[in-house]
Amino acid sequence: MKFQVLFSAICLLAITGCTFLPSSGPSGFRVKGAAGKEANGICYELLELNQNVLSAIKSNAPKASYLSAGGRKSDDLFGKRGLEAFGSVSSHAIAMGDVVSVAIYESDSSLFGPSLAAGTISVSPMTALPPQAVDQTGEISVPFLGRVRVLGRNLGEVEEEIREGLKMKTADPQVVVTVSERHGGDLVSVAGDVKAPTRVPVSLAGTRLIDAIASAGGSQSAPYDTMVTVTRNSEIRSDLLQDVFDIAKKNIPLRPSDTIVLRKRLLSFLSFGATGRIASHPLTVEDVTLSDAVAASGGPSDLQANPSTIFVYRVEPSAMLRALGKAPSAGPTTPVVYQLNLHDPRGFFLANSFTMRDRDVIYYAPAGSAGLLKFMGLINTFIAPAVSGLGVAGSAATLGAF
C-alpha cells in the first residue's frame, strides 16, 4: 500500500513539476512566445516556412546567398569589402622600370629639326626621343620642357602635358608616348592559399585579378569559402573569390606592386537541441539545403525532439521582413527564427528549397513528453534496485520452502 502511494505521488510530480530537470534548450512553446518581444537588447521575428517566405528570402538575399546578412566578427580581419572601389585602371599606367618612348611631330620642324623652305611640300617631320627607363624619380626628360613626371600616369595624360608644354615653342605639336618594354617594375605578388605562390607581370594588354590568381595555380579551397585581399599602396580591400568570379566589376585590373593574398574562410552551420549531440558542420558545397543540414546533423531525436518545432536562427536584411508585412528593427538587419514543421509531409519539400547560410543555427526543440520521460527514467534509477531486491527476497523465500 505504501509503495502504491509513493508511486502515485511520483507520477503527480512528474506531470506537474519536472521543469527542474536538465533540458537541451527552450521548448517550441517558449520560442514562439518570445517572438517579437525584446529582451536583453534582442528582438527576433518568427516565420513559419512556406512558399511566401521562401520567395521573400530569395528576393532579398545578400549578394552572396550562402552568407548571413549579419556577417562575422572575424570578417574585420579581412579589411573593407568592395574590390571594385579600386576602379578600372588603365593597363598602360606607367610603372617603375618601364621603358618610355616619346615621338614628337611638328608642322614647321623649327624646334627639333631643320626648318622647311617656304612653300616646300613635305610630310611633317617626326622626332623620336631616345627611349628612357623610368627610375625611382618617376620622371623622364623632354628637350625644351625639362623633367616630366610619368610614374603611375596614363599615356594620354603624359602626351597631353608634353603637348601643352611645347605649344608655345613650336606650332601645333603632336605627341605620341608609348611603353616599349617593361623590366621588373610591373610585378604583382600572389600568396596565401594558392597552389604556387608567385610574382606575376602586369602585361601591356592588361592583367586582371583572376588572371593573376590563375597564374599562381588557383585557390586550394572552394571559391565560396576563400577570401581575396588586395593591397594597393596603403589601402586594403577584400571579397569572396566566388564573388570575384560572379561579379565582373570585382575582377579588377591590377597595378604593378599590388599584393594579392588568398585565405580560407571556412563556412559552417551549427546544430543544437534534441539531436543527441551539439556540433559544427562545414558547408561543403555552395547550395546546402535545410534537408541536407538536417540529415548531416542527425535530425530530430525520436525520443526527445518535436518534428514540428525545428528552428533555424539567422540574421536577415530588414527589407525582407518588410516585404512580408512585418515591422522589423530600424537597423539594416533583424534576427529571424524560421520554423520547419516535419509533421506536415509538405515540410520536406519546403526544407529542400531553403538554402543554408554561414553561421546558421539549427535548433531542435524538445517534445513536451521529453521531460516526463526523463523524470520517469530518473525515478526508475531509485525504484529498480528496490524492485530487484524484492524479487531476490521472494526467490530466496521460495528456495527456503524446499
Number of strands: 18
CATH topology name of the largest domain, in short, is: Outer membrane lipoprotein wza fold like
Task: Give a quick account of the main beta sheet: strands, pairing sense, barrel closure.
Answer: 6 strands, mixed
CATH class term of the largest domain = Alpha Beta
- Helix count equals 10
Q: What proportion of the residues is helical, as a percent range? A: 25-40%
Strand order of the largest sheet: 1-17-16-18-14-15
- What's the number of domains? 3
The dominant shape is: elongated
Over the alpha carbons, how many angstroms does the gyration radius reach?
36 Å
Q: Give the CATH superfamily of the largest domain.
A: Outer membrane lipoprotein wza domain like
Low-confidence segments, given as residue ranges, are 13-22, 369-376, 395-402
